[in-house]
Amino acid sequence: MSDDSAxxxxxxxxxxxAASCPACVFFDRCGGIQNSRPLLNCFDQFCCGDGSCDxxxxxKPDFAERLRExxxxxFDDIPPLAQAERTLPRYVPLIHHKYSRSxxxxxxxxxxxxxxxxxxxxxxxxxVVDGPDDLRTHxxxxxxxxxxxxxxxxxxxxxxxxxYRKTDNVAKQIACLNxxxxxGPNFSTFLDVPRTDALFNRKRQLMCLAELSEAGxxxxxxxxxxxxxxxxxxxxxxRDNPTLxxxxxxxxxxxxxPKEGRKAISEIVSIQQNLGRELxxxxxxxxxxxxxxxxxxxxVTLIDSEPFARTMRRRRMAPSNGIRRWNETWTLERQPxxxxxxxxxxxxxxxxxxxxxxxxxxxx
Length: 364
Prior knowledge:
By secondary structure, the chain is an alpha/beta fold.
């Protein structure tokens, strides 16, 4: 009997009311669901029953193949992840490209999109830069600038990375860039899908991070959860990986909501308390949460591209009473935007520091 057939036999068929989630073969890994329909398990609630969806689900004919892709839904085979000690600035600007500038931008630390560094051509997924110096030249950054690669992106870019990461040894290509940190890819997790889909995508992120860590790259996991059991998983995972101090929260999608974002930050505070050690929180696109997070974390780092994007639209930051305001300005035709970008990053960094109660980290 195939793995897929065995799993189908153990699970309740869709549409049948389940007595409890523990009846499911996956319960010990997913921890069950908690919502307004407590008598129904995730397959009863969310499985289409005919395999017409894109989810990873035992009722689909490709389920066994998907399990083989990640070596099963157990997480015991993920080796320890390594993260180098480093204190990050309160604000790390995301730089998308070098255009409309003529000078090197000298920053202590900058972030670039991981997937901006790779191109797919002739069936090969190749890095567009040749090494650390070329990486900085590619984005017109100073030679002393530390680089963080942001792994959060749209699904299309994530899936391309996943498809080619092994065949083209992407982890080794990234290791040659000597970056300071790589934030894990945010493979999507949803509320209205079987839990097997969420476990699959969590496992994929950790596999990517493990490959990078094995290649000598310092990594930070991207934390996400749809059920309370997910936060318990991250607590156990971080306990088993004591070098992981920096953890990331993507505030650009589900956690963009003030309510959900604060709830997630509070869960990470609980993880920090349970671990008995300090965590450093990286908010990806979460400027609105800087003050809230800084009340509970000694170190909070914001990564976003707001100063960069506003500069490209000829806007100058003019904060008022703690509110971010961007005034229209103008430049001559083809005038470089170096000075405006530097000014906006300085103003935004100062605003970020004020939001974090004035605590300034000591760079290492």
